[in-house]
């Protein structure tokens, strides 16, 4: 099973055996282009990560943690002398929210 984020299309697809099961429109951080390099850069990580746990007590709707930073991210950050950041989540917008998706907070 895979979750594939296509940043240029603001979409997320859930795949099984190479076939799309579901597809969603998504919002990302304020600066989605390019790979996340450091803590606070408002970028969305690019690469292979594991969805490793649900965070039921999150302030965001149905949060799932991703395994950012991976080893490659850590090595890059160390070489640059920066902190890679962490606690990156995929989450939805609460269906009871009065805001339309295009006005929802992006991160």
UniProtKB/TrEMBL annotation:
Keywords for the protein's UniProt record, in alphabetical order: Cell shape, Cell wall biogenesis/degradation, Peptidoglycan synthesis, Transferase
Q: Name one Pfam family in it.
A: YkuD
Q: Which GO terms describe its biological process?
A: cell wall organization; peptidoglycan biosynthetic process; regulation of cell shape
In terms of InterPro entries, this protein maps to: LD_TPept_cat_dom, Transpep_catalytic_dom
- Record's superkingdom? Bacteria
Q: Name one GO molecular function term.
A: carboxypeptidase activity
Instruction: Please name the pathway.
Output: Cell wall biogenesis; peptidoglycan biosynthesis
The family assignment reads: Belongs to the YkuD family.
Protein name as it appears in the record? Periplasmic ErfK/YbiS/YcfS/YnhG family protein
């Amino acid at each position: 099973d895979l979750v594939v984020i296509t940043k240029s299309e603001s979409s997320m697809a859930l795949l099984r055996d190479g076939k799309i099961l579901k597809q969603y429109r998504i919002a990302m951080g304020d600066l989605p282009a390019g790979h996340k390099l450091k803590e606070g850069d408002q970028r969305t990580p690019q690469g292979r990560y594991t969805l490793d746990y649900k965070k039921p007590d999150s302030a965001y709707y149905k949060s799932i943690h991703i395994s950012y930073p991976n080893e490659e991210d850590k090595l890059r950050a160390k070489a640059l002398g920066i902190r890679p950041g962490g606690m990156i989540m995929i989450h939805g917008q609460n269906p009871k929210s009065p805001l339309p998706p295009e006005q929802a907070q992006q991160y």
